């Protein structure tokens, strides 16, 4: 079965705090193997765990070049989780790579910022000390340009207001997005904790990002009972009724139908 064989290769762009192979959690789980078995040509984004948006976008550009060189295609499809969507948007608009991107599908990307980041940064002296240690650790474990404090600041609503003005959508790219909301789901203890700590100031969310912040381009709606981590199959199995791989299969099949 090759129903996930898109015209252009797919690049999976992860979020903050992880690399393609680990970090706070290991992203993507069963998703790559599932899609490849159905004909998809996949690459991983290759961004730093704790880099700035600009650093991540430059690293995505490197992956796009490689994917185009190896497949002979002149464009790619980007599927991005969380901060990866901001890096993809900067790649497209800030770096002028729109002509090489056919589509951008964003999953719980904080396009209008996250109050979680804003509230954490109120404790700036302690956060700054943690950031120095975190950067030193990740510099030894694969990050090219770790900058934890900058990465956190770039997720605040205030920063994203200016970011959105500076990075308008490219007309040649198809943008779509989904949000998620924990609701009554109880499978993800870590996201339940962050949700509880910052609600009601933050509002209903997937534990980190609200659906209102995730909304961008063609809005595909809110996935109910799904956490921020479940969106990238952190647990390697379906929980609370959300069939992770089935969601990605449908997403990619749709890209096929759209000619991407």
Question: What would your notes on this structure say?
Answer:
It is a single chain. The protein has a six-stranded parallel β-sheet, sandwiched between helices. Strand 3, helix 3 and strand 4 (101-107) form a beta-alpha-beta unit. The protein has ten helices and six strands. The model has no long low-confidence stretch (mean pLDDT 93). The protein has 260 residues and is of the alpha/beta class. The longest helix has 19 residues, at 53-71. It has helices spanning 31-37, 53-71, 83-94, 115-120, 124-140, 148-153, 157-166, 189-198, 211-214, 244-257; strands spanning 10-13, 42-44, 76-81, 101-107, 174-181, 218-224. 40% of the residues lie in helices and 13% in strands.
Short description:
Helix content is 40%, strand content 13%.
SSE layout:
Elements: E1 10-13, H1 31-37, E2 42-44, H2 53-71, E3 76-81, H3 83-94, E4 101-107, H4 115-120, H5 124-140, H6 148-153, H7 157-166, E5 174-181, H8 189-198, H9 211-214, E6 218-224, H10 244-257
Parallel strand pairs: 1-2, 1-3, 3-4, 4-5, 5-6
Helix pairs in contact: 2-3
């Amino acid at each position: 079965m090759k129903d996930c064989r898109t015209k252009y290769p797919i690049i999976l762009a992860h979020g903050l705090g992880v690399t393609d192979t680990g970090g706070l959690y290991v992203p993507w789980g069963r998703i790559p193997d599932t899609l490849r078995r159905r004909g998809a040509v996949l690459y991983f984004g290759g961004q730093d765990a704790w880099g700035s948006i600009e650093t991540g976008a430059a690293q995505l550009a490197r992956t796009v070049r490689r994917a185009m060189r190896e497949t002979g295609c002149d464009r790619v499809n980007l599927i991005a989780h969380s901060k990866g969507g901001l890096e993809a948007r900067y790649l497209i608009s800030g770096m002028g790579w729109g002509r090489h991107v056919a589509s951008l599908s964003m999953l719980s990307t904080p396009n209008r910022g996250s109050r979680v980041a804003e509230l954490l940064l109120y404790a700036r002296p302690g956060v700054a000390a943690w950031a120095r240690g975190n950067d030193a650790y990740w510099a030894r474990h694969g990050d090219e340009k770790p900058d934890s404090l900058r990465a956190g600041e770039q997720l605040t609503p205030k920063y994203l207001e200016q970011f959105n003005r500076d990075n308008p959508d490219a007309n040649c790219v198809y943008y779509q997005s989904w949000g998620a909301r924990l609701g009554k789901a109880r499978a993800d203890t870590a996201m339940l904790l962050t949700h509880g700590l910052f609600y009601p100031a933050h509002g209903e969310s997937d534990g980190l990002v609200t659906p209102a912040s995730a909304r961008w381009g063609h809005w595909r709606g809110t996935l109910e009972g799904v956490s921020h981590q479940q969106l990238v199959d952190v647990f390697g199995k379906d929980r609370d009724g959300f069939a992770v791989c089935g969601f990605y299969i449908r997403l990619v099949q749709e890209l096929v139908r759209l000619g991407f």
